[in-house]
């Protein structure tokens, strides 16, 4: 199958999946891209200057049908789009299709309330991304929001959840990127992927680019083990982040030049990066990420909140004192606490299947109530004995020292 046909197939598949999930606006975008590519392929035409613009009237009946489904489908949260989301119209359509398939996340379900504590990080992200979308007239001039934030801290402390919650609060397009997503064995393609990523983010603005494990993508330059290809990718990433800052300056100029001084509708592109190794990040990237926020291990109150959040779908026995359990979990990360709750909640199932063959288990599946018995204090004791913290004290100390030197709230 040729590359053009593969690109069309990828777009059609993504469009079908989006429509099945009730995301009709996203589905329209994918199908429009597939139609445009198909028309160009069948006529052997090069993409014109306005490639990607929908053909007036070509898909009007179909679009109206999809809009009707959005209104009448009855799915919670699914609404008919007033217009299709803009799509990437540049020359690298194949790379764009790969990025859309792999990293564009629409409608993340994580909310601020799902995250225990971390109020300082929530404040920084609200001021940088959420509030400028709600009150753009205020965030101008010296109050212009920052365009880049770095979240750093031990693994499993909630950095990715913070990114998803920020995207949910603004309903912006969420690009979830890691170094493996942008890696390519072909010379020059990784730089192109970075360039296309930022072009797509600008086309689909307001948007957020979340770069997880950014230290793998943009470690310090000039080291003895640095490859030329890696250096080129870092340079392209830094250039594109500079472009985001330049676009912000143009927005401010446009607001100042408008007759009433009101800014145009915000089309922010926000860069959020996360790392477990902030000391490995290139200093040029560190400078571009103006806010550098430490995401620590949860304290006593946050651990109690995490236990309550993780156990809200199961019954807890009266003999369980969650405050006492939280005190025993000092040094545990959020992920560690989630794993511990899962292990404790599975003990009822373990007692149910103990000593039974697969056939006996299947024959007793009518007694599902036994599988859902309340989680007891003994279940937590067993889980705590088996599951130890995953973060060392030395790692915490190193993060706190870096915070004192480079932290920025």
Automatic annotation (TrEMBL):
InterPro entries, per database record: AAA+_ATPase, AAA_lid_3, ATPase_AAA_core, ATPase_AAA_CS, KATNA1, MT-severing_AAA_ATPase, P-loop_NTPase, Spast_Vps4_C
Name of the protein in its database record: Katanin p60 ATPase-containing subunit A1
Listed SMART domains: AAA
Enzymatic class: isomerase
Similarity remark: Belongs to the AAA ATPase family. Katanin p60 subunit A1 subfamily.
Known role: Severs microtubules in an ATP-dependent manner. Microtubule severing may promote rapid reorganization of cellular microtubule arrays.
Pfam family, one: AAA_lid_3
Domain AAA+ ATPase intervals: 145-299
An example Gene Ontology CC term for this record: microtubule
Principal localisation: cytoplasm
Binding residues annotated for ATP, in chain numbering: 153-160
EC number: 5.6.1.1
Keywords: ATP-binding, Cytoplasm, Cytoskeleton, Isomerase, Microtubule, Nucleotide-binding
Record's catalysed reaction(s): n ATP + n H2O + a microtubule = n ADP + n phosphate + (n+1) alpha/beta tubulin heterodimers
Subcellular location: Cytoplasm, Cytoskeleton
Record keyword ATP-binding present: yes
GO function terms (MF aspect): ATP binding; ATP hydrolysis activity; microtubule binding; microtubule severing ATPase activity
Region ranges (Disordered): 42-89
Compositional bias segments (type: Low complexity): 48-57
GO biological process: microtubule severing
């Amino acid at each position: 199958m040729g590359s053009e046909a593969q690109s069309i197939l990828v777009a059609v598949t993504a469009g079908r999946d989006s429509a099945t999930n009730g995301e009709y606006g996203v589905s329209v975008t994918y199908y429009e891209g597939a139609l445009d590519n198909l028309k160009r392929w069948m006529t052997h035409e090069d993409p014109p200057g306005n490639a990607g613009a929908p053909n007036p009237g070509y898909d009007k009946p179909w679009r109206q049908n999809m809009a009707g489904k959005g209104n009448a489908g009855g799915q919670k949260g699914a609404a008919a789009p007033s217009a299709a989301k803009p799509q990437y119209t540049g020359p690298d359509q194949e790379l764009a299709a790969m990025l859309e398939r792999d990293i564009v996340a629409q409608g993340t379900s994580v909310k601020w309330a799902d995250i225990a504590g971390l109020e300082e990080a929530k404040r920084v992200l609200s001021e940088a991304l959420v509030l400028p979308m709600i009150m753009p007239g205020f965030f101008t001039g010296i109050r212009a929001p920052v365009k880049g934030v770095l979240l750093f801290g031990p693994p499993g402390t909630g950095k990715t959840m913070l990114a998803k919650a920020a995207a949910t609060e603004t309903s912006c397009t969420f690009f979830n990127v890691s170094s493996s997503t942008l890696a390519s064995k072909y010379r020059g393609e990784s730089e192109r992927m970075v360039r296309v990523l930022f072009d797509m983010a600008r086309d689909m603005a307001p948007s957020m680019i979340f770069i997880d494990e950014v230290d793998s993508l943009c470690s310090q330059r000039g080291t003895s083990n640095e490859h030329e290809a890696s250096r080129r990718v870092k340079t392209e990433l830094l250039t594109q982040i500079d472009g985001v800052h330049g676009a912000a300056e143009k927005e401010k100029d446009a607001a100042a030049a408008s007759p009433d001084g009101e800014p145009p509708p915000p089309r922010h592109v926000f860069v959020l990066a996360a790392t477990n190794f902030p000391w490995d990040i290139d200093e040029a990237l560190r400078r571009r990420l103006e806010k550098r926020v430490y995401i620590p291990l949860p304290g006593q109150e946050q651990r109690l909140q995490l236990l309550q959040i993780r156990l809200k779908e199961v019954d807890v026995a009266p003999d369980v004192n969650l405050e006492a359990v939280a005190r025993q979990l000092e040094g545990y990360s959020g992920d560690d606490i989630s794993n511990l709750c899962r292990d404790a909640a599975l003990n009822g199932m373990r007692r149910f299947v103990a000593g039974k063959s697969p056939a006996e288990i299947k024959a007793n599946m009518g007694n599902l109530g036994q599988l859902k018995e309340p989680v007891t204090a003994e279940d937590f004791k067993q889980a705590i004995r088996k599951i130890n913290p995953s973060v060392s004290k030395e790692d915490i100390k190193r993060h706190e020292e870096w915070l004192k030197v480079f932290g920025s709230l």
